[in-house]
Design brief:
With 318 residues, this protein is an alpha/beta fold. It folds into 2 domains: 62 residues, Sun protein, domain 3 (Alpha-Beta Plaits); 211 residues, Rossmann fold. The protein contains 11 helices and 14 strands.
Length: 318
């Protein structure tokens, strides 16, 4: 059973937040799960070890439960009792060696949907600190070229450390604003966009206080710039994945609707994963979005006991 975080005692959502999100979901369930501790999860890094070998290596000390939608993913819990029960998954020797990456289970979805192949040219536009970049690299088997970009040097430092730890050798790191990319074509592009983060309250309680009604509109301008550039960089027949850890329709379905209106050669593809999902939003606060957004993936924290996430798979016509 999920465990309530004691730090949430006395914490209240803003009335405007409650009113807004009551239209979108079961607000009581959302608040309940947002106040639970987030389950620890890891992804096996197959560049360094195969899945069965890792499971055999750690199972005596740690209980592993497979993540249904990601064969490399596991929820992890120490087998100890009371004070002997470890929670410092990041201090596992297997993490230090790069055999595993501590990564939230819903965060594993965008690279899965992107489906990068060995030998391709791939761009991770907002890459740091590297959970999805290292996941993409392992699916590419270190073959081809993967560009990992971020706008902040301190974040790129973390990306570099994680790439080295995980044995990634096919990444070119760049530092620039994502919308400034030009002059090169990619087979696939991931835009895991900066967002208002309302799906991440379980690990970032400050989001409750930071949220305001105008934040989504402000961030949506940045997101539109990123996806406009990302789609223009795609080869014909290429795939772009747009993802956020927010549940704001303007930053999710609204951005997909923008792509479809901006680019006649863009289409939304279905996302087939073994996961519980909620209906996507086709209208909100007077705005109506294309019915094509129904093909996207919207998950609330209460759907799978994870973070909230939104993922869209966009195809460029041949």
């Amino acid at each position: 059973m999920p465990i309530t975080n004691p730090k949430t005692e006395g914490l209240e959502f803003k009335p405007k937040f409650v009113k807004r999100y009551s239209v979108l979901t079961d607000i009581d369930k959302f608040k309940e799960y947002s106040f639970y501790y987030l389950r620890k999860s890891i992804r096996v890094n197959t560049l360094k070890i195969d899945i069965d070998a890792l499971v055999e290596r750690v199972s005596k000390e740690w209980k592993l439960v497979p993540v249904p939608w990601c064969k490399e993913g596991f929820w992890i819990e120490h087998r100890g009792i009371g004070e002997a029960k470890r929670r410092d998954v990041g201090n596992m020797i297997e993490h230090v060696l790069g055999y595993v990456y501590v990564q939230e289970a819903a965060s594993m979805i965008p690279p899965l949907v992107l489906d990068p192949q060995p030998g391709e040219r791939v761009l991770d536009m907002c890459a740091a600190p590297g959970s999805k970049t290292t996941q993409i690299a392992q699916y590419m088997e270190n073959k081809g070229v993967l560009v990992g970009n971020d706008v902040m040097g301190v974040r790129l430092a973390a990306l570099g450390v994680n790439l080295q730890r995980c044995g990634v050798s096919n990444v070119i790191m760049t530092r620039m604003q994502g919308h400034r990319f030009k002059g090169i074509e990619f087979d696939r592009v991931l835009v895991d966009a900066p967002c208002s983060g309302t799906g991440t309250i379980r690990k970032s309680l400050k989001t409750i206080d930071m949220w305001n009604p105008g934040l989504a509109s402000h961030l949506a301008k940045t997101q539109r710039g990123l996806v406009r550039t990302a789609f223009s960089l795609l080869k014909k027949g290429g795939t772009m994945v747009y993802s956020t850890c927010t549940l704001e329709p303007e930053e999710d379905e609204g951005i997909v609707d923008y792509i479809l209106r901006e680019f006649p050669d863009a289409s939304v593809e279905e996302i087939e994963l073994d996961i519980e999902r909620s209906e996507c939003v086709t209208s909100f606060e007077g705005k109506t979005y294309s019915d094509e957004v129904k093909k996207c993936l919207r998950i609330w924290p209460q759907d799978n006991d994870t973070e909230g996430f939104f993922v869209a798979k966009i195809k460029k016509a041949e």
